Amino acid sequence: MSGHARASTLFFPSRPSIQRAAPVSVPTPIFMPVGTKGSIKSMSYEELCTAPSLSPPIILGNTYHLALDPGTDVLDEFGGLHNFSSWPGALLTDSGGFQMVSLLKLAEITEAGVEFESP
User: How far is Cα 77 from Cα 112, in angstroms, rounded to an integer?
Assistant: First the structure.
C-alpha cells in the first residue's frame, strides 16, 4: 500500500418498513452490483441473498432507468425501491447526471429538474 489509500465505512440505519431490523455497515471501497431497474440480472434473488461469497451489503440503482421502468408511480405504490426489489441491504442510487449530459437531446432542463423523452 502507498499509505495514501482512503477507506471508510458507510452506515445505514435500521429500516423496519423493509424488514431490516439491524443497521447495515458497508466498508469502502467496495464493489456494488448494479440493479439498473431494481434487480440484478446476472443472478437469482436466492443466490444474491444466501450465498455468503455473493451477498453484497449494497446495490447500486440507476435513477434514470428506474424512472423509465418500472417508473416512479410503481416505486411509490410499493413504498420505495427497497420494497419493490425486496432487498434488505443498503441501496445507493446515482443522481442521473450522466444521462442528463449523454441524453441532452432528449432532455428538457428547468428550475424544477430534468424531464426526459423516452428513447
Answer: 23
